[in-house]
Amino acid sequence: MNILEVTNLSKEFKLHMLNNKKLAALKNIHFSMKQGEIIGLTGKSGSGKSSLMKCIYRTYLASSGAIVYLSQKGSIDLVQATEHEIIALRKNEITYCSQFLSVIPRVSAIDVVCETIFKVNTDKELARTKAKMLLEQLGLATDLWDAFPVTFSGGEQQRINIARAIISEPRFLLIDEPTASLDSKTKDVVIDLLLDLKAKGTSILCISHDEYTLEKLVDRRLNLHLGKIDHTN
Ligand SMILES: Nc1ncnc2c1ncn2[C@@H]1O[C@H](COP(=O)(O)OP(=O)(O)OP(=O)(O)O)[C@@H](O)[C@H]1O
Ligand SMILES: [Mg+2]
């Protein structure tokens, strides 16, 4: 069963600084994704990987085409869906994990991790216990659990970001460069956590430049080249 079907997807940006010059970031993208599959999204810097992910999450509105997502309540085109429908899907099914943590001031690391779960589950202590387990697995020093992540290192912030994305076990996970600034031991932990999610049924679209992560994690790859899917590999 396909959880995602992308057809003829294009995204153009109008560059206001350059007299509204148009930049075609994605051109006629066409692919589908099976439920429980992990797809690795690869390609050179600027090839359109993050733009594609943001079109799926609807941070960007596609210029044309369709992105049909099979939700628990039936099929929905994420290009045509209302804001209300998108908010509900983000709350209950689809999680996006960007490359960088957008830090919430004066919220502890534990509570940053719990944020998504707090929205749907009122048992705060249970959520915090789960968060601690994840942070322990990810090797984040216990001294940092109650600290504010603003001052954390890149790798520490990335671990917080990953923990908060996976804690609620989303049905569909979009994850941008999950292992980029991690040491090899933590990289293995992240790969195992993502494979555990897959075993529970999560479908994952993962941007990565890291050959080791791709080898261990993904079922297949989609390579973007200048905004198009490159079918040569
Ligand atoms: N909001 C935006 N406004 C204008 N142009 C944009 C915007 N977002 C992306 N682009 C352009 O779209 C193209 C694709 O960018 P994108 O961020 O999707 O690449 P990427 O493959 O994720 O690269 P990287 O590996 O460096 O993260 C680039 O030329 C970029 O400048
Ligand atoms: Mg990117």
TrEMBL record:
<dbReference type="Pfam" id="PF00005">
    <property type="entry name" value="ABC_tran"/>
</dbReference>
<dbReference type="GO" id="GO:0016829">
    <property type="term" value="F:lyase activity"/>
</dbReference>
<dbReference type="InterPro" id="IPR017871">
    <property type="entry name" value="ABC_transporter-like_CS"/>
</dbReference>
<dbReference type="InterPro" id="IPR027417">
    <property type="entry name" value="P-loop_NTPase"/>
</dbReference>
<protein>
    <submittedName>
        <fullName>Phosphonate C-P lyase system protein PhnL</fullName>
    </submittedName>
</protein>
<dbReference type="InterPro" id="IPR012701">
    <property type="entry name" value="CP_lyase_PhnL"/>
</dbReference>
<feature type="domain" description="ABC transporter">
    <location>
        <begin position="4"/>
        <end position="233"/>
    </location>
</feature>
<keyword id="KW-0456">Lyase</keyword>
<dbReference type="InterPro" id="IPR003593">
    <property type="entry name" value="AAA+_ATPase"/>
</dbReference>
<keyword id="KW-0067">ATP-binding</keyword>
<comment type="similarity">
    <text>Belongs to the ABC transporter superfamily.</text>
</comment>
<dbReference type="InterPro" id="IPR003439">
    <property type="entry name" value="ABC_transporter-like_ATP-bd"/>
</dbReference>
<keyword id="KW-1278">Translocase</keyword>
<keyword id="KW-0547">Nucleotide-binding</keyword>
